[in-house]
């Protein structure tokens, strides 16, 4: 559902009177947004960071690995988010009114990384604790209040 919304937002044709040139220089549009003022910059950065940020949580959730290495999980998730953002940017080359911007790729990837780092490790540790407590509750308990059960020695059978 999230990817369908992202596709609708980023790949629908826009009816605009003019389109700026594609930005292939890193940090150029970030500098331009900062020059417009703090409110405009915060809005532009927020859009870039939040567009694919839910994937930072949804991709590891879809993997379902509770015992995964935090660093490898972060790298896998960031790589998938970067590739998805790159795919969106490449598809935008054929959409009227949409412009390719390398800074949006950087902001989208950073948003995925921040969301993953903020949510996934804490959720995994909480899920691991829940699984461990359920596992401990499922183990049979020894009732030590009554003492040990006496055993009767076995007697061999006579010929």
From TrEMBL:
Segments crossing the lipid bilayer: 40-62, 74-93, 105-127
Keyword Cell membrane: no
Domain (VanZ-like) ranges: 2-118
Keywords, alphabetical: Membrane, Transmembrane, Transmembrane helix
Entry keyword Transmembrane: yes
Pfam families named in the record: VanZ
InterPro entries the UniProt entry points to: Teicoplanin_resist-assoc, VanZ-like
Protein name: VanZ family protein
